[in-house]
Amino acid sequence: MAIRINTRSETFTVFFREAEPLLRRALTAVVGADAGKDAAAEALAYGWEHWDRVGIMENPVGYLYRVGRSKARNRRKPPPSLWTQADAPEPWCEPGLRSALASLSDRQRVAVMLIYGFEYTPTEIAALLGVKAGTVHKHAERGLRKIRTSLEVSPDD
Amino acid sequence: MTDVRRLLREFCEGLDTSQEPVDLDDVLAEKLGEPPVRPLADRTPVRPRLWPAWATAVFAFTAVLLFGGVVWLLGAGRDIAPAADGGPISTEAPSTTEVPSQVAGLPDGAWSLQAAYDGWLRPVAFEGGFAAIRRLDPLSEFFAETSGDTDGLADMFTGDVSVGDIWVSSDGVDWEAAPAQPPTAPWSLTSDGETLFAEIGNVFAGTGEIWASSTGSDWRPVLTGDDYGHLFASSLVSHRWTMIPGAVAAGPPGAVVFGTDLEGGVAGWFYDGDRFEPADVEAISTLLPSDLDEIHVAALGDRFLLYTFDQTRYQSETTLKMSFSATGAAWGDPEPKPVDGPLGWPDAELNMVASTGGLNLVGMNSGFGLWATDGNSWTEITLRPAEDGWMPEVAAGELGWIVYSPPRRETAFSSMPEPGNRGLWFSPDAEVWTELDDLGPLGDAMTRNILVRDDHVLVVVGADRGEGRGWGVPEDPATEVWRLEIDQSGVNVAATSFNAGPWNPILADTSARQAPPAATCPPSAEPGRPGPSDQERPTSISHAGLTAAFDHHAGRIVYVDAAGATWTFDVCTNTWHEMHPQGTPYASERELFDAAGEPSGVIGDLVYDIDSDRTVVFGSDTVFVYDANTNTWIADPNGYDSVQDNFHPSGAVYDPVSGLIVTTTMLPDDRWDMWAYDVDTEAWTLVGTVPPERTTPCCTGTDLLGYSQQLDRLILSTYRELPDEDPPFEQVTLLLDPRTGITELLPPPGPFINLGWPGHSYGQAGGTIFVKGWPVWKSMCGFDTGTLEWTLCFDAPTGPEAGSYSGYAAMVDDPINNRLVLINGRYGDFWMETDAAVWAIDLPSGDVRTLVAPTDGP
Questions:
Q1: Which of A150, B298, B492, B589 has a Cα at 20 to 30 A from B549?
Q2: CB proximity A16 to B under 8 Å
């Protein structure tokens, strides 16, 4: 029995549904699957707790990404990351791809995974990271170049 | 064939498949899972009272939560330092409050708990000094949704939970928790000057009590449910706002309490010095607020004011109904007054009620304006700042007026104050207002600052979810600066510096050559006159973050558009000129598309190198140099080979001392390297790494904003990690000495730079660095090198939709005309919509001028 329409929770819910996948995927790219999801959950909880302030920001997703990233990086005992575990490829994973991704900088990994893996635009990623779209472009291109080098394939392969 | 992009897609699809999304309900209930803490000492827990089932509502008030810590300060000196004498109000504040048992006792099937938080600190003055109710961060909105229970109803719980406590001080400097507290945390604290009144629970809904004290410690009940419970069958109060203070008002006339009931009507009491006695409210029996809105009471200088609105909140053309009483014992006929404009946010409320010099003032942050009354007639106060704002509390015959500018967001709620860009005005008589030159670090967004003024000290308390801070100024606030000694976390927020690590002295040892003569406009020029609106202009904008640069020698702005074409803008005639140069600022047309294959334009920062008289683009893989004299682009054949791997310039500025261009690039560990580039020799020099060790929480995500010749410092924006704070970072401004590498962190706040969509942007003009969109997104604020604060603010041009520009493709200096030129406002989804206009902000006046009018559309 729904008993009340709440503007605050409604607006947050709308935001949550749009922002959660991007935040979770981006933070997963930074710190791995489990810690990334935890960081996303923490960031979103922070957003909900402070929704009066966060909700009127121009770029709440970018703000919460920074919250999640800070929380993840400041965790005293960081869990093993997808990127730092021994290379035991998942069934769907090309051997060597995970270690190739692990060799990228955080920003390169976020750019590469979100643009080429999840098909977000550089502009969306720029908003998330708080950098220029051109910088995202560079991160993505150079990250892709590094992966190709790691996998020993050329752009034309 | 190995398609790396396909591999990445498959890898990420696998991740998505194996990873459950974050659960919305878990997030909404997150704060309910925090561990309980020990209740405050000497407090008798009160068992929350279970109420009968209500028709359709299920609401529970409870409390949880973190106390962010409030620190209070006063002291001498401009410099900010850790507290010495005036320490924090609390050193052992509980981090959370006990989760009430009722939460666990919700009916079976309750599945959704939602909460809003609303903590605050409210001080009042009384004869013995000051008292403050320190609210923890309670759930001001808490309700449960049920399903499957027998009758479809649920229970309502009241909020008799310890969510705050009372602190007292004799001088406003040293504070201590009152040794004896009311039985539960009060929701409001008021004073008539002699006696403190604490509202406990919810008087409106018939569950609360009023307690009184003359010292802050000797609390006793003066109005209880026994006095009024028989009057109320239900409550007129909106469930959402049942806890809003307003049932109690105290001031020079005394104290009154009001409540309303659907059947019983209005009930009121007045304080006779011992207890609250029933008031004669027959004349105001028709004042029942409609649509479950509240009735409000306020104390003026010589009378009480009772008011309500006759329409739902957020509506325009409503009517404010007011009634006055000299003592609260009897009330006069209500006086209607139309309100022209939307009501305040979040609820209709007269948030400006004050008295001075025998004048009673009433106002609200809407089109209602500010009015004065002597009890017989009304006069609109016009000698006040043009902006709307909040009037804080008043004491000792002086008014404070905090103005937020612009005060309104274009939302259905209206009048939502923006953070920052405030003005603070003072008046002894409500006629002559004096603006305080130095605003100091006033509170944050939606903080209703409270001023308590005595003979010597003005205390401002911004209390925004535990972010309460206090500032003190000496007697003459118009001339003295603010002093902030400690913040709520106890962190020393004074400007701190750290030494540089290894630092190449190239920027100290190199001297710029003689610059070519700077251009001027011919005497016949009319630089203030807009250029032709139908002129050819750059195609769209680059969304890759390209800036423009002013060529001092040519007197033109150099700009590269989204198609890679080179343009210059003549600031004397306000006309664009496509240059058709030899060469391009990109290696191949492929560079004009981003990683997703979308057109992006040239990527890189544009800098004019004055002593070389050339403009530089730091592109994707190399540097391109434009010589306006020969109209030629030349690529540096060495690219970034001599620079570190993953070189990403995050801002570049010309250093007029060395004649070199300085740029920064982030390192994988979030530090950043500073490089110097010599256009003439195409040589790169690593200057140093900041911070030298990855041991300090500073500085991540750094943007190089500009160079101040006055300070001889580079100005940067960065994030400072605060692992144990909430939020876990803050934005700060860095001053970096390019000669020595010594870096100084200024106290927050610093600009929140986000160059992603919707695109805050920055630029430099007249020696000042401006940031668009901070602290108010419709404005741009410059860094004041005198005060080291971001206080030089201008309104930004408005877009096709009011206030719609979120950023600009370029913000560039026009030293000839002493103005900041803004090119191509961005608005709409992902700033792809643009109208290719050019504006200028005249720096001396702040006036916005259109130099090239917008086109009809993108």
A1: B589
A2: yes
